[in-house]
Design a protein that fits this description.
By secondary structure, the chain is α+β, with helices and mostly antiparallel strands. The protein is built from 18 helices and 25 strands. Helix 9 packs antiparallel against helix 14, helix 9 crosses helix 16 and helix 16 packs antiparallel against helix 17. Adenosine-5'-triphosphate binds next to helix 1. It is a multi-pass membrane protein.
């Protein structure tokens, strides 16, 4: 039961003074009154659209201002101005209500026929005649499962025949629901009312009452669509208008993803190449008094984790490998002068003595190409050294190939082999620096404590930290620029959402009259923002992936096939950027959300 208790309402002049009245649960209440007497205002108050009044409106003893989702639970509106969404067709307009309320399904066809709108379902409402629009609005107003229907001039745009049909339908509905109709049509008002009221002297006054034939409420068969479906529909609808902002955000995200991935990939590759040249488990040692090392000194340094050791004399250069005893021939492979222990042998056998060597796979392939031979395993080659302008060669046998493609040509020797060769060739037994290859670089501390006369340090540490330092400087500059682009794009997103809310103020108000809650409106704005940023992010990710596949193929073809994948998209980068952009999007949505909260329904409907 709907009750008006001592309601007083005024704008610039009073409309109702201490007005009271009780509406039965069902029945057709027709309200008449002079223009400007406050009929529409009364409906707005009863429908919960206008809460600025003194007194109370109660439904089943509860103040309607205290009822959450009052419109959704109780009210169906039929407005004089229709309030249809022009961009949608008739079916979509009617279905709008089903996202917020349960709608009757078993009477649907019957009413569509009666209102003569069955064939109009696919028509955009913008092209309908005033009468057709009104019939659609009426249908949408009562098709949901709510106990009260509020109609403001429902027949204003209809001819006499259609107006009568509407009154008949409303009368039929009033057997099960409370129908309150404002009408200027005196004939129909008199013919179809159960209760006829007039607003006069700031009060509702009963003019006439017809005998009422009450009908027992029938259980309605209803259905409801989920709000999620509506969000998806909404995203589809606003997709075109958000296309540009998606592209701007996509470019900004692509730039930051490119920056982060490029710097990280390059840094990783440099570290990997450095690891091949100087493994991170290589420890360099010198004598603290700067004296030269002898091989015997080096042998005294003992630790179970040491795998390999060698001396380096800076004055001796390892020049290369040749198939003849002559150094400068076409069949000479020039080689960088570093050595290390082979890790995984794939072909051939282990090195047994100083006269045997293993080659990295790429070096082996190079040598194979130079020699025009089919196989080099067990073939003799000559290693060339230079010391004090004297070039000497040392004959060795290739016994294996290490399964590693190295950026620089690489030869693996037996432990102490280098020292032995230099001793035989130049009678040198000393070096300034020694290197230990160890299983675990953490033994550095043990070695320092155990051998205080020596200086120990990780061979690649200073190089890799200086690379990191340089990279960090470049990274920060790039991050600043690309972050600025992302922040600007998100700001643009915020502005676009804000403008959308302003432009669609009326649409939001109509949704609220159909039962949408404020939270649902806010969710809609949020989903729009998140939809835009997620689309831009996915687009950027796909483009980045394609770019990297292309760039990796290009690098492998033109520079080196040593690198399997130079550019790699790191998951932590993706996750970081995604979380960052989500947070920025949420922040940017705050102002549009505030605007949604400020929408005055009545004012927005009139706009
Ligand atoms: N938001 C508002 N701010 C100020 N005045 C308002 C507002 N809404 C309505 N009014 C005024 O309140 C009075 C009653 O308006 P209302 O629309 O309720 O009248 P009505 O009886 O429905 O009139 P009509 O039959 O012409 O539609 C009018 O004088 C109108 O100008």
């Amino acid at each position: 039961m709907l009750e008006i208790k001592n309601v007083t309402k005024s704008f610039d002049r009073p409309l109702f003074k201490e007005m009271s009245m009780t509406f039965q649960e069902t029945g057709m209440y027709v309200i008449v009154g002079k223009s400007g007497s406050g009929k529409s205002t009364l409906l707005n108050i009863l429908g919960g659209l206008d809460n600025e009044y003194q007194g109370v409106i109660e439904i089943d003893g509860q103040d309607i201002r205290q009822i959450s989702h009052y419109i959704r639970k109780y009210i169906g509106f039929i407005f004089q101005q229709f309030y249809l969404i022009e961009e949608m067709n008739v079916k979509e307009n009617v279905n709008l209500i089903s996202y917020f309320k349960r709608i009757m399904i078993f009477k649907k066809e019957y009413y569509l026929e009666r209102l003569k709108i069955k064939d109009l379902q696919r028509y955009k409402t913008a092209i309908l005649s005033g009468g057709q629009k009104q019939r659609v609005a009426i249908y949408r107003g009562f098709i949901a499962k709510h106990p009260i229907i509020l109609c403001d001039e429902p027949t204003g745009a209809l001819d006499a025949k259609n107006s009568e049909e509407i009154f008949k339908i409303l009368k039929q509905l009033s057997k099960e629901k409370l129908v309150i109709v404002i009408s200027h049509d005196e004939i129909l008002a008199k013919k179809y009312h159960d209760y006829l009221y007039e607003i006069k002297d700031y009060q509702l006054k009963l003019i006439h009452q017809n005998p009422i034939t009450q009908r027992k409420k029938q259980e309605e068969k209803t259905s409801k669509r989920s709000f999620l479906q509506f969000i998806l529909k909404e995203l589809k609808m606003t997709w075109k208008s958000s296309f540009i902002v998606v592209q701007v955000l996509f470019l900004a995200l692509l730039s930051i993803l490119l920056t982060l991935s490029l710097t990280q990939s390059t840094q990783k590759q440099i570290h990997q190449q450095l690891e091949q040249i100087i493994p991170s488990t290589t420890i360099m040692l010198k004598k603290k008094n700067n004296q030269m090392f002898k091989m015997d000194d080096l042998k005294q340094i003992q630790h179970p984790a040491i795998q390999y050791r060698f001396l380096q004399n800076d004055q001796v250069d390892f020049l290369g490998i040749s198939f003849s005893k002559k150094y400068q021939t076409k069949k000479t492979l020039y080689i960088s002068d570093y050595i290390q222990q082979p890790q995984k042998k794939i072909q051939g056998r282990k090195i047994k003595n100083a006269q045997e060597i293993i080659l990295s796979k790429s070096t082996y392939e190079q040598l194979l190409y130079l020699s025009h031979q089919k196989d080099l395993i067990n073939k003799d080659v000559y290693l060339f050294f230079e010391y004090q302008n004297r070039i000497c060669f040392y004959k060795v046998k290739i016994v294996g190939i290490e399964n590693k493609k190295t950026l620089m040509e690489t030869v693996y020797f037996n432990e102490y082999a280098m020292s032995q060769m230099l001793k035989e060739l130049y009678q040198i037994e000393v070096g300034q620096t020694a290197f230990l290859q160890v299983k675990d670089k953490n033994i550095l501390k043990d070695l320092k404590n155990k051998y205080p006369l020596y200086q120990f340090k990780l061979a690649n540490s200073s190089l890799s930290s200086s690379i990191d330092e340089k990279f960090q400087q470049i990274e920060w500059i790039l991050y600043c620029f690309s972050s600025l682009a992302v922040v600007t794009a998100c700001f643009l997103l915020g502005v676009v959402l804000y403008l959308m809310v302003i432009k669609r103020k009326k649409y939001f108000a109509i949704l609220q009259t159909l039962g949408a809650s404020l939270w649902q409106m806010i969710t809609l704005v949020l989903c729009q923002g998140l939809g835009i940023s997620c689309t831009a992010f996915i687009e950027a990710m796909i483009v980045l992936k394609k770019l990297f596949i292309f760039a990796n193929q290009l690098i492998q073809k033109s520079i080196s096939d040593l690198m399997d994948e130079f550019f790699v998209i790191q998951n932590n980068v993706l996750l970081g950027v995604f979380i960052g952009v989500l947070i920025l999007t949420l922040l940017c949505c705050l102002i549009p959300i505030k605007k949604v909260k400020q929408i005055e329904i009545i004012e927005a409907l009139k706009s």
